[in-house]
Amino acid sequence: MNILFITSNRVGDAVLSTGLLASLVDRYPDARFTIACGPYAAGLFRGVPRLDQLIVMEKKSWNRHWIALWKAVIGTRWDLIVDLRNSIVPKFLRATQRATPTRKTGKHKVMENATALALDPPPPPRLWTDAEAERNAARILPAARPLLALGPAANWPVKQWPIERYAALAKKLTSPGSPLAGASVIIIADAHERAQVTPLLQSIAPDKRVEVIGNDLLTVAACLKQCRLFVGNDSGLMHVAAAMGTPTLGLFGPGYEDIYGPWGPDCTFIRTPESRETLLARLPDLSAKEPNLMGGLTVDRVFEAARGLLSRAP
């Protein structure tokens, strides 16, 4: 059985599509998979069982990336094509069955994706690591110590909780008598975000600090799997943590937590006291004095949310 799975370029959306993919992996144990996605998300799928081909779709002018995809898969007769991009490509391929989700339902992305195959309840996101990622994680992580992971960056600067508050939160969560007393603190970011997270790195003692900066996504996922808690901005990294089963606390302000909140039994979110609409109305007036829209979210509120999550997560 040949299955073509077309998913997103964005890391967060790609992660949220993996529950649908996992349902197919489990339902069809003899199926072979071809996955098409953008370059940013491609690393997430390296460990998918029975993966025949991973097609990286580099965006091209005039939508020529769709033509390139068509050329790459036209020679196969597909038993099932799942297209989460709702593109025109599947219509020009030989396929027994084609599936696309209902768009703009207003529901969470995981629920929206599940409409492609009429799955109820919707399957939760799942990522598969490989031996290379596990070896990398074993080399990076300290042994025999609880781990607190922080994701202080985001692709939209206005969604980034102030970096100094991450430093204060890490200190509060790992101090004596706190829920993660003595824990090592893992700082996760892309290579180009190092300057942004440097103040946080400098606030943590070298023997308690673990840098996971510029690593591939599966290595990051393997590291997150070992963590007791992840706290981070509304970002793709937050969804990676949730998909790995790590207790995950997402920080929201101008984002859409009802559609993009972290998904899973040990996941929750906290948002600014201001509504999304109130925050977005301030966008034109942002300045150096207010570089983002997350200032209303205090360290104490995030600490209490983290403590509550830790108290109920296994």
User: Average pLDDT, to the nearest integer?
Assistant: 95
End-to-end distance, in Å? 38 Å
Helix content: 25-40%
CATH architecture of the largest domain: 3-Layer(aba) Sandwich
How much of the sequence is in beta strands?
15-25%
Number of DSSP helical runs = 11
What's the main sheet like? Answer: 6 strands, parallel
Taken from the alpha-carbon principal axes, the silhouette is globular
Give the full name of the CATH homologous superfamily of the largest domain: Glycogen Phosphorylase B
Structural class: alpha/beta
CATH topology of the largest domain: Rossmann fold
Provide structural commentary.
With 314 residues, the chain is an alpha/beta fold. The chain folds into 2 domains: 2-114, Glycogen Phosphorylase B (Rossmann fold), CATH 3.40.50.2000; 133-312, Glycogen Phosphorylase B (Rossmann fold). The protein has helices at 11-27, 64-73, 109-114, 131-140, 163-174, 194-203, 217-224, 236-243, 257-260, 276-281, 299-312, and strands at 2-6, 32-37, 51-56, 78-83, 95-99, 147-151, 184-189, 209-213, 229-233, 248-252, 267-271. The strands form 2 sheets. The protein has a 6-stranded parallel β-sheet, with helices on both faces. β9, α8 and β10 form a beta-alpha-beta unit. The model has no long low-confidence stretch (mean pLDDT 95).
Features of the shown structure:
single chain, 314 residues, alpha/beta, Rossmann fold, 6-stranded parallel β-sheet, 11 strands
Topology:
Blueprint: E1 2-6, H1 11-27, E2 32-37, E3 51-56, H2 64-73, E4 78-83, E5 95-99, H3 109-114, H4 131-140, E6 147-151, H5 163-174, E7 184-189, H6 194-203, E8 209-213, H7 217-224, E9 229-233, H8 236-243, E10 248-252, H9 257-260, E11 267-271, H10 276-281, H11 299-312
Parallel strand pairs: 1-2, 1-4, 2-3, 4-5, 6-7, 6-9, 7-8, 9-10, 10-11
Helix pairs in contact: 1-8, 4-7, 5-6, 5-11
